[in-house]
Amino acid sequence: MSAARSRSTSGVRVVSAEFEAGAARAESLPPPGCEEVAFVGRSNVGKSSLMNALVQRRKLVRTSRTPGCTRQLNLFAVKLADGRALRLVDLPGYGYAKLSKAERQGWAAPLEAYIRTRGSLGVVVLLVDARRGFEEDDAQMAAFLSAPRPSGAAPRLVVVATKMDKLTLSAHKPALREIARQAKAPALGFSAVTGKGREELWASILSGSRG
Ligand code: GTP
Ligand code: MG
Question: Is 35 in contact with 120 (CB distance < 8 Å)?
Fold first, then answer.
């Protein structure tokens, strides 16, 4: 009995995770290979931290207190114990008001080009700060993600509320419910500090994966 219970929570094991390539423009990335899972959201929402937590490597992806840390498209090659291979893609954050309009547009263009044209992009994880909720920028991104692409079907959208450790336990459910309502999609809770939500997020990323 107890053995069966422990197996059910053993979850996804990452055997390797390596930086593969970084590029300022979508066209400069290596050619599409295995399925890609991209992470998008406002600057500072916790994209890079969440990726480190997913692969259980503290410093694979650079994180920072200062918004605007990730300025290019960064590809990470990940192998799972069951033999599956994936690429995780860290994308520049949006909605950072202190940047000039030109700077913001300079980063938005590669991000949008990547999402619109990358045929190997299968899943987009949209991160929302659990304390701030779903904001106008996020709604625009969600609409952009669901728009038809020249390269094929729209990627599957997974919505994640980050920094759940900053909320009291009693605030978890209402926060997730509200984000899901606004995103019109189920929302998972996640904390890069405690690792809570990691298994659910992997399960959601891998469900229906082509890898
Ligand atoms: P940009 O690259 O600027 O777009 O930011 P990002 O979305 O990659 O955020 P990053 O992972 O660099 O994290 C931003 C800040 O939030 C850092 O100070 C992190 O330590 C903190 N942070 C990220 N995730 C969590 C979390 O789950 N809980 C808490 N308490 N802090 C977090
Ligand atoms: Mg980042």
Answer: yes
Query: Model confidence over 99-155: pLDDT tens digits?
Result: 555 555 556 778 888 999 999 999 999 999 999 999 998 998 898 888 888 877 889
| Structure letter (DSSP) for residue 73 | E
- Domain 14-206 -> CATH class: alpha beta
The domain locations on the chain are 14-206
Using a 6 Å cutoff on CB, does residue 74 contact ligand 1?
no
Residue with CA closest to ligand 1 atom 5? 44
Within the chain, residue ranges assigned H as helices are 2-8, 47-55, 101-117, 136-146, 169-183, 198-206
| pTM (whole model) above 0.85 | yes
CA of 63 to the centre of ligand 2 (A): 5
